[in-house]
Amino acid sequence: MHTFDPASIRPPSPDGFQHALEDEIREMLDVLATQERYLDLRLPDGRTLRSRVLFVDAAARLFTLEGCESEPDNQAILASAQSELSTVLDDVSVTLALGAPKRCVFAGAPAFAVPFPQRLSQVQRRRDYRAETLDFKYTFKTELPDGSALILDIADLSTSGVGLRSRAPDATALAVGTVLPKGILSFGTLARLEVSVRVVRYQLVNTGADVVHHYGCEFVAFDQAALLA
Questions:
Q1: By three-state DSSP, how is residue 77 classified?
Q2: Which of 52, 172, 189, 202 could crosslink 66 through cysteines, CB 3.0-4.6 Å?
Q3: One domain for residues 107 and 137
Q4: Count of domains in the chain?
Q5: For residue range 110-152, what is the model confidence (pLDDT) as tens digits?
Q6: Between β-strands 192-206 and 179-186, what pairing exists: parallel, antiparallel or unpaired?
Q7: C-alpha neighbours within 13 Å on the C-beta side of residue 69
Q8: Which of 124, 142, 175 is the last residue of a domain?
Q9: How far is CA 178 from CA 40, 147, 159, in A?
Q10: Shared-domain flag, residues 24 and 82
């Protein structure tokens, strides 16, 4: 996940929201638009609708939010001077505080032009701090029950588990609950560690040009792991 620089975020207000830099907000909106994921749009009247970020116009400081099939729902969105757009990215609950939208059309369908939000809320759902590791190209290697080899990228790491990713479009998804015994966490020239992990979360993200399998795994008997030469 693209996270915000803590040094650039002011302390949270009493309602739990923080002020973030425009570039950081734009980066998050770009991620949501690329992933085409459905988001929860919470209105002041208590209703929650489903929507997506369709397009981000950085120059105009606007983004396009998908409209609803129901015109009464669209009218409710238009009448909302404030609303909240929320989702979960890599086990972090993210909520963006939105201002008043304006009706527009995107690809021939109802949509809304919304100003860049200035405030957000992020809540870490994991009990332990995670370090992102994708830039280091670390890998997890194991053997499946049928004897075939499995190699996944290490996306993030904590004391209680590891986030793994695969970009192989024809890869068979691992079911939640699957235990991968005697896997090797390889940290380049630094170290290799033998562990067993259990899949506790799975998410498939299809961006059109790419397919990414996301696995959240917990360590099994991590204190018995062996540091390899």
A1: helix
A2: 52
A3: no
A4: 2
A5: 999 999 998 888 766 555 666 777 777 899 999 888 888 899 9
A6: antiparallel
A7: 1
A8: 124
A9: 30, 15, 20
A10: yes
